[in-house]
Design goal:
It contains 16 helices and 16 strands. With 484 residues, it is α+β, with helices and mostly antiparallel strands. It folds into 3 domains: 283 residues, no CATH class; 125 residues, no CATH class; 58 residues, Arc Repressor Mutant, subunit A (Orthogonal Bundle). The chain has a 9-stranded mixed sheet. Helix 9 crosses helix 11 and helix 15 crosses helix 16. The structure holds adenosine-5'-diphosphate (ADP), zinc ion (ZN) and magnesium ion.
Length: 484
């Protein structure tokens, strides 16, 4: 086996009101260069002022990753010349970052792996460049949009602990999930997570692949890079230390520049920004406010609920869903709640491109519906209809009458009653069965002369007449009773 070493540097854009060092709104906007001021444009004489909310968010992530927090941190200037950074330096942290020496446990298939977190720091996002008529190396010209300049980033750097692309992907997925639990990242937002992946094989030089978005892209880039480096070695050539980009159109990495060393950046202390004290009181307050994190929740759920691992993994994907599950399973059948939440409910949400928290499916609605299902008052088919109706934004794909009046939020029972979706009672069932038998003398005769398929046909007729209100098992029993 080839020895592979991978270290990741992950940049998380934070959703704060204002940018990191100025009062500009921290938001995308349609027009370029709208949310800008002297500071984020880097005008001479402008002064940065730290957005303290970012410090707290960074400490939160650091605490969740069991890092040592530095009590006195400051900012440094990382010098480089490029149009996306008009000051010709990026404000970041170098000598004393917010936190160091953390660890994150990662589940890789059925193993648990501990990954060392080297450091966690704050820095500003550069402007966005748009290359016109080509890519970064052959475009005719480049446009610069400073709306993004000054967006707060936290950077999370691991030690080179990953031994495969798969491990790196698992780490990233679980990191993203942790950040979601911490309210530092929402997948449906415009804020992004980008990763630089460092990779070396057999103690050779390390290659850095810059700016990869998405966990599966990281895995692809790494797999490509591992085989490229192996090929070089095979042909007796050295891997050069360099910076590459991942071209997702062709799933390959390409040379960007020979790797600069740390010294090239000429870090110096930034005298415009004051030192920041992260005292133990603040650290403790933030530590105590941390929610139960996804991996702890996963372990606890596996222990407390007698459910398949797959169901538990699916439940904890969304912390609000996990919370509602626990709540509902106190009064309802645990298996029923879990399978509906991770099955039909998630399907309906995906179809409408909604998250659990943002949808109309409140805990109250789900509770009432699951209670009806558990009491056998509604068929699975009609329960699904009710879910689709409630969650769908425009109602076009359900045949349920729109009953909601302005400001009124109706529960599933009322909607089911109004639309005749509750299960048939005994009298109704008898009527459906009698009618189906009367109208289908031939299949009845066929069944009597030994054709079992004919019975299924009659059951189907009952189901059709009842519009999902009948229960197939009861229908079958009643038909048999009536025929004999
Ligand atoms: P630099 O000083 O060049 O920025 P760092 O020590 O800060 O390098 O590490 C940057 C990233 O490179 C980290 O994620 C680290 O884990 C990774 N890294 C360091 N050495 C190696 C190596 N030999 N192979 C792969 N990745 C490495
Ligand atoms: Zn600004
Ligand atoms: Mg570094």
């Amino acid at each position: 086996m080839t020895e592979v070493k991978i270290g990741l540097e992950t940049h998380v854009q934070l959703d704060t009101e204002t940018k990191l060092f100025c009062g500009c709104p921290n938001q995308d906007c349609e027009e370029p260069n709208q949310n800008v001021c002297e500071t984020c444009l880097g005008h001479p004489g402008s002064k940065p002022r730290l957005n303290k909310a970012v410090l707290n968010q960074c400490v939160k992530a650091a605490e969740a990753l069991n890092c040592d927090i530095n009590d006195n941190v400051f900012f440094s200037r990382k010098t480089y010349f490029y149009p996306d950074m008009s000051k010709n330096y990026q404000i970041t942290q170098y000598e004393v970052p917010v936190a160091e020496n953390g660890r994150k446990k990662v589940n890789v298939s059925d193993r648990e792996k501990a990954v060392e977190i080297k450091r966690l720091h704050i820095e500003e996002d550069p402007a966005k460049t748009q290359h016109k008529g080509g890519n970064i190396s052959d475009s005719d010209y480049t446009k610069v949009d400073y709306n993004r300049a000054g967006t707060p980033l936290i950077e999370i750097v691991t030690e080179p602990d990953f031994e495969s692309a798969e491990e790196a992907r698992a780490y990233l997925q679980q990191m993203v999930q942790m950040l979601e639990y911490l309210d530092l990242y929402k997948p449906e937002s415009n804020y992004s997570i980008k990763t630089d992946a460092n990779i070396s094989i057999e103690g050779g030089n390390r290659v850095e692949v810059k700016n990869i978005t998405g966990t599966s892209e990281v895995e692809k880039a790494l797999n490509y890079e591992i085989s490229r480096q192996k090929q070089l070695k095979k042909r007796g050539r050295e891997v050069e230390q360099e910076t590459r980009t991942f071209n997702s159109d062709i799933s390959a990495t390409e040379t960007l520049r020979q790797k600069e060393t740390e010294e090239d950046y000429g870090y110096i202390f930034d005298p415009d920004l004051t030192r920041q004290e992260l005292n133990t009181e603040l650290q403790e307050r933030i530590r105590e406010s941390l929610p139960e994190l996804p991996q702890e929740k996963l372990k606890r759920f596996k222990k407390e609920y007698n459910l398949e691992d797959k169901l538990v993994e699916s439940l904890i994907k969304d912390s609000k869903m996990a919370e509602d599950f626990e709540n509902l399973s106190e009064s309802l059948n645990t298996g029923l709640v879990a399978s509906w939440m991770t099955g039909e409910i998630r399907k309906v949400l995906n179809y409408n491109e909604l998250t659990y928290s943002d949808s109309n499916l409140s805990r109250e609605f789900i509770e009432e519906l699951l209670t009806m299902i558990q009491k056998d008052e509604v068929s699975d088919r009609n329960a699904e209809k009710l879910l689709r109706h409630k969650a769908s934004l425009d109602d076009q794909d359900t045949d349920i009458d729109k009953l909601e009046m302005d400001g009124e939020d109706l529960g599933p029972r009322v909607i089911a009653e109004e639309n005749d979706l509750l299960k048939a009672d005994k009298d109704e069932m008898d009527a459906f069965v009698e009618a189906a038998i009367e109208e289908n003398p031939e299949p009845v005769q066929d069944y009597k002369s030994g054709d079992d398929e004919a019975l299924n046909f009659i059951v189907g007729q009952v189901m059709q007449r009842s519009n999902g209100k009948a229960d197939p098992k009861t229908a079958r029993e009643k038909i048999l009773k009536n025929i004999d």
